Structure formats: structure tokens, C-alpha cells
Amino acid sequence: MCSCHSSSFTKHLAVKLWKYLHKKLTLVPGVCEFSWKIYFVFSNCCRVSSKTETIRLLDHRLQSMMAETTVSRGWREKGNISYKNFTDSNSVERQRNYLQSALMSYYRAYETSGCDEDKSSAAKNYGTAAWRLATVLKMLDEKTCLCSFRFREAIKYFSEV
Q1: Residue 125 to residues 19, 67, 139, 153, Cα–Cα distance (Å)
Q2: 69-158 belongs to which CATH class?
Q3: Measured distance CA(74)–CA(117) in Å, rounded
Q4: Residue 157 buriedness (CB in 10 A; 0-12 / 13-18 / 19+)
Q5: Per-residue pLDDT tens for 29-88?
Q6: Whole-number Å distance between alpha carbons of 157 and 121
């Protein structure tokens, strides 16, 4: 049995992991979404032969998970700004433009989401914006097929929440 599989090394690695999580991941909303990924990363890292390599690999994998969440969150925040501008706008034309911008941001957030919580949040936001855009398009007397397409999109994304 190699040294990386000993129980003292495993305990040492677990302590390092939780210290790292406390410092880095508490700043990220929805920390609990990482729990199953951390277990997976931890179990895979224990198969590496050197302790230094294990810590390096663990650090790299956790940073990549944080980066995925941060990218998706950034797109959602950008979409939220456009959606807020939509709610503050009085012009129906501007409302359409803001909603289309929000939809693009929410779609990018959905595509870049690294976990189920991010994907669910982006889908909910996309569905809400698509539904509102369909109602705005109806007020603008747009083509019926475009309105129904947006309603179908909204239902599709709501079903993924």
C-alpha cells in the first residue's frame, strides 16, 4: 500500500481540504453545491502517488469548479441588470431590447454553468425573461409564430428548474 492511502495521510488531506474550503469557497454563494464534487475530487486525488501532487491536483480542480460558477454567475448578474432596466423602462421598444439582452446573458449563464444549482437558476431566469418577452412581442403585434416560440422556450426552460 502506498503512503497516499494511509489513514493519517487521508486525515491530513481532509484537514487541508476543509481549510482551503473555509478560506476560498465561503465567498462563493451556494457552497453546498460543491459537496458532492469535493467528494469526487478528494477520492480521485487520493489515487495520486505523491502528497505534493495530490494537494496541487486538488487545488487545481477546486479552482476550476469555482471558475465555472463565477462565469455563470457573472452572466446571470449581467442579465439581471438588463432585466431590471426592462422593469424600469416605459417604452415597449426598449423593453423588448432589454429583454433580448437579458435572454442572451441568461443563455450564456445556462451554457457555462458548472453545477446543477447554476443551471437551474439560469434556466429559471431565462424562462421568466422569455415569457415576459413573448408578452411584450404580443403588445407590439409581432408575428404570432415569434410569440409562440418565446412561450415554448419559456416552458422548456421552466421545466429544467
Answers
A1: 34, 21, 21, 12
A2: mainly alpha
A3: 14
A4: buried
A5: 444 444 445 544 555 555 544 556 656 666 666 666 666 567 888 899 999 999 999 989
A6: 10
* Entry pTM: 0.59
**Which amino acid makes up residue 16?**
K
Residues in the chain: 161
Residue 97 and residue 137: Cα distance in Å, rounded? 11
Cell numbers given for 72: 455563470
Domain edges within the chain: 3-68, 69-158
- Can you tell me the distance from the alpha carbon of 109 to that of 72, in angstroms, rounded to the nearest whole number? 4
HEC secondary structure over the chain: CCHHHCHHHHHHHHHHHHHHHHHHHHHCCCHHHHHHHHHHHHHHHCCCCCHHHHHHHHHHHHHHHHHHHHHHHHHHHHHHHHHHHHHHCCCHHHHHHHHHHHHHHHHHHHHHCCCHHHHHHHHHHHHHHHHHHHHHHHHCCCCHHHHHHHHHHHHHHHCCC
